[in-house]
Design a protein that fits this description.
By secondary structure, this protein is α/β, with parallel strands linked by helices. Helix content is 42%, strand content 12%. It has a single domain, classed as Alpha-Beta Barrel (TIM Barrel). It has 14 helices and 13 strands. A hairpin with a 5-residue loop joins β3 and β4.
Length: 371
């Protein structure tokens, strides 16, 4: 099997020839530092929002080097976002959302174009275009169409909180302005459907719905609010992706156990990342592993940051023994490959996946279980 086949098989609850490996995201510095383990031909580290087209292409070529060298099965891509900088750290995107760059992770939302329902009368969302998704066709060309292309799109919750300038503003609106938040979700859902359709046309294979719904001990919003304000839109996006012939999974950190059954009822194909600080992957596998694909779980807060390569190998081996039997598992970090992750630990994680994740006759092989 090639990487695309492994990813699609696992997301369909099948058993591939080996456990697939994929990541939701790499920070710019992370991917460049990993690539330096294989080549000196890497670009200077900078935020992608500040790069021109040539610099972005060089960054993508660096990603492709890592994918090829390590035989990574899937690659996440996101739409290019037009960015107008206010100063060295702050920029405004084509939705009118103001962000601040953060070296440790994603840009932080500072302000949005919508403060109340009155603003919706004049607000016009941008139109997604092929130029925003050219990385998909470029990646398929460079990777010989053998790597699963995961198109990451903002879920209605995340897109809505961006539009109103932050999660706190949206959570308050859930209580005070029900019609308003439904209209926000409608705008977000329609845009996401357009993005999914164009992504399919350009060669994406899988959709990731990005946006956290939980923290370490509970959901961010009540299950009742999730079911009223978000679940119908998630189900609509799942149905739309399936109609396009694509598989789709949900990313959310934290303890989402109070709404996990709701995820399954929408028809999602997978849940990522089963954060080990919040959820036990063995329990998750036992309870829902026959109904939905599990992605993730390798600790990127402690093991990949502070552990040794031996620690990483042991955690990968243990996780595969728990989550991989019967298929329906894709190994990944418990969030993303952020700047704190040691390059050597990321490489150890991928190589350990290949070492311990082989299936023979539908089961993890005895050879894979040996040190």
């Amino acid at each position: 099997m090639n990487g695309k086949e492994r990813m699609l098989t696992a997301l369909s609850l099948g058993i591939p020839d080996r456990v697939p490996h994929w990541e939701l995201a790499y920070n710019e510095s992370s991917i460049i530092n990993i690539a330096r383990q294989f080549t000196d031909d890497v670009p200077e580290i900078d935020f992608i929002q500040r790069m021109d087209l040539d610099q972005k292409i060089r960054l993508f070529d660096t990603v492709f080097t890592v994918v090829k060298e390590l035989d990574v099965d899937g690659l996440t891509l996101r739409p290019f976002v037009a960015s107008t900088f206010i100063d060295d750290k702050r920029f405004v995107d084509d939705w009118g959302v103001t962000y601040q760059l953060d070296p440790a992770g994603e840009a932080l939302v500072l302000d949005g174009p919508i403060s109340s329902e009155d603003d919706l009368k004049t607000f016009r969302p941008p139109t997604i275009s092929e130029s925003d998704l050219l990385s998909i066709s470029y990646a398929n060309e460079q990777l010989n169409n053998e790597t699963a292309i995961v198109l990451s799109v903002q879920c209605p919750f995340r897109r809505s909180w961006n539009m109103v300038g932050g999660m706190t503003n949206l959570l308050m609106a859930y209580v005070t302005s029900p019609e308003f938040v439904h209209k926000l979700a409608r705008i977000a859902t329609d845009f996401t459907k357009e993005t999914i359709a164009l992504g399919k046309k350009l060669g994406a294979h899988i959709i990731s719905l990005d946006g956290d719904l939980a923290h370490n001990t509970n959901t961010i919003i009540s299950p009742q609010h999730f079911r009223e304000y978000l679940k119908p839109y998630y189900a609509e996006l799942v149905d739309f992706a399936h109609d396009q012939g694509m598989l789709i999974f949900k990313h959310t950190d934290g303890d989402h156990s109070k709404i996990t059954e709701d995820f399954l009822e929408t028809g999602l194909n997978g849940i990522h990342p089963i954060q080990p600080q919040c959820l036990d992957i063995g329990t998750v596998k036992k309870e829902i592993g026959d109904r939905i694909c599990i992605l993730g779980n390798i600790d990127c807060i402690e093991t990949l940051v502070n552990g040794s390569t031996a620690d990483v190998e042991e955690e990968v081996k243990r996780t595969i023994e728990i989550a991989a039997p019967g298929g329906g598992y894709i190994l990944a970090s418990s969030n993303s490959i952020h700047p704190g992750v040691k390059p050597e630990n990321y490489i150890a994680m991928v190589r350990a996946t290949h070492k311990y994740g082989k299936y023979e006759n539908g089961v993890i092989s005895s050879e894979s279980k040996r040190f």
